[in-house]
Amino acid sequence: MAEFGASSVRARANAAALDRIAARLDGVSEAKIAAADKRALATVRRRVEPIVKRAIREVYSVPVRELSGKFQVRTTSDGAGEGLELFAATKRVPLVEFNARWSGRKSAGARASILRGKSKVYKSAFIATVGGRREVVARQFSADSNSPSGRHPRSHLQRLRGPSPLEMTKGLDGQNVVRIGDEIVRFAATERARQLQMARKGKI
Fold first, then answer.
1. Residue 152 class from Cβ within 10 Å (0-12 exposed, 13-18 middle, 19+ buried)?
2. Which residue has the higher pLDDT, 150 or 109?
3. Residues in Cβ contact with 63 at an 8 Å cutoff, skipping those fewer than 6 apart
4. Mean pLDDT of 168-195
5. CA–CA separation, 121 and 167 (whole Å)
6. What is the sign, positive or negative, of the torsion defined by CA atoms of 141, 142, 145, 147?
């Protein structure tokens, strides 16, 4: 079962107090304001994952299939009201998924691009099929190996991995999580205003 960790991305349904006050002054009932908040929160919930995936793939060269099903948007509730919090999978993505390639035994090692536009050589690593899937692997070295080279046999291959969806959500120095949070907050504010306007028109 996949494990998920908190990403620090949060959004609240009732954060825009001025919008709510304006709606009350326009004669919108508390019940309709609450309904508008609920509808806005549901729309924001649907938009969170696409926003996160796009932000991640602007920085990391990870295919979208490796991000599918790796996020959970959970409802939270405390003294400040109801809101949403994003959780992301903590399992690291296989390095082979980051545009990995290997030129053969005479090369220095396998090459992969975790960050877009930045390629790195992983010395002595190569691409092999392990357990039915392609992986970037490296032989483990040990003083107690029976091999003259000190390398373990094929059964001791180390599978190399890149960052997890949670790590990519947070990004380098926490930059991604700030961008994602800002975009979600902006969208939530716009959607909340739209729903309150529908309430004013009697459409809620």
1. middle
2. 109
3. 97
4. 92
5. 21
6. positive
What phi and psi values does residue 2 have, to the nearest 5 degrees?
-70, 140
Q: Are residues 70 and 11 in the same domain?
A: yes
pLDDT band per the 50, 70, 90 thresholds, residue 141: low
The beta strands (E) that lie in the chain are given as 4-12, 71-78, 81-89, 109-115, 118-123, 126-130, 133-139, 157-159
- CA-to-CA separations, 64 to 50, 70, 102, 149, in angstroms, rounded: 10, 10, 22, 40
Report d(CA 127, CA 3) in Å as an integer: 27
Q: Nearest Cα to 47, choosing from 180, 193, 203? A: 180
What is the domain range of residue 124?
95-159
> Would you give the distance in Å from CA 157 to the centre of its chain?
28
84 and 128 fall within a common domain: no
d(CA 6, CA 167): 11
Place of tokens 């969806």: 165
Give the pLDDT confidence score for residue 44 in this predicted structure.
93
Are residues 9 and 48 both part of a single domain?
yes
What's the whole-model pTM score? 0.82
| 172 and 132 in a common domain | no
Residues 84 and 125 grouped into a single domain: no
